[in-house]
C-alpha cells in the first residue's frame, strides 16, 4: 500500500512538473511570437492612418506631419525586414502619431500654401496684368 501511495505521489508530482514545463514552453512561444505580430499590427494601423492623411490632402495642408509619417512608416518597414521588431514597432508608432497629427491639422487648420508661393503668384499675376494693359494701348507694334 505504501508503494502505491509513493507511486501516485511521484506521478502527481511528475504530472505537475510536466504541466509547469508545458506552461513555460507555451509562455515562451507566445512571448517570442509577440514581436513580429505586434509590429506587423502597428505597421498596418500606421498604413491606414497614413492613407487617411493622404485622402484629406495632408501633403498640402500639413506637409511636415505628412512626410514625417511617410518616412517613419518607411523606416518601420525597413526595420521589420531586418527582423528588428522592437524598432519597427517604435517607428510604426511614430508614423501613426504623425499621420494622426497630419489628419487633425489638415482638417482643423488647413495650410493654404507657402507665403513664398503666394508672393510668386501675385508677382506673376501683376506682370500678366501689366502685359494685358500694355497690349490694349493704342499704337504701332511689331517694329
Automatic annotation (TrEMBL):
It comes from Persicimonas caeni. Residues 117-133 have a biased composition (Basic and acidic residues). The chain crosses the membrane at residues 15-34. Gene3D superfamilies: 1.20.1270.390. Pfam families: DUF4398. The lineage of its organism: Bacteria, Deltaproteobacteria, Bradymonadales, Bradymonadaceae, Persicimonas. PROSITE patterns: PROKAR_LIPOPROTEIN. Keywords: Membrane, Transmembrane, Transmembrane helix. Residues 43-108 form the DUF4398 domain. InterPro entries: DUF4398. Residues 110-143 are annotated as: Disordered. This is DUF4398 domain-containing protein.
Amino acid at each position: 500500500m505504501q508503494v502505491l501511495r509513493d507511486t501516485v505521489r511521484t506521478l502527481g508530482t511528475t504530472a505537475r512538473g510536466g504541466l509547469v514545463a508545458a506552461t513555460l514552453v507555451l509562455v515562451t512561444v507566445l512571448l517570442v511570437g509577440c514581436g513580429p505580430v505586434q509590429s506587423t499590427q502597428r505597421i498596418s494601423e500606421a498604413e491606414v492612418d497614413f492613407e487617411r492623411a493622404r485622402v484629406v490632402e495632408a501633403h498640402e495642408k500639413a506637409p511636415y506631419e505628412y512626410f514625417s509619417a511617410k518616412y517613419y512608416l518607411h523606416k518601420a518597414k525597413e526595420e521589420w525586414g531586418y527582423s528588428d521588431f522592437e524598432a519597427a514597432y517604435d517607428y510604426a508608432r511614430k508614423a501613426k502619431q504623425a499621420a494622426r497629427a497630419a489628419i487633425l491639422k489638415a482638417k482643423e487648420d488647413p495650410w493654404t500654401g507657402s507665403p513664398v508661393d503666394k508672393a510668386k503668384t501675385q508677382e506673376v499675376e501683376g506682370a500678366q496684368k501689366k502685359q494685358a494693359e500694355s497690349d490694349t494701348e493704342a499704337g504701332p507694334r511689331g517694329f
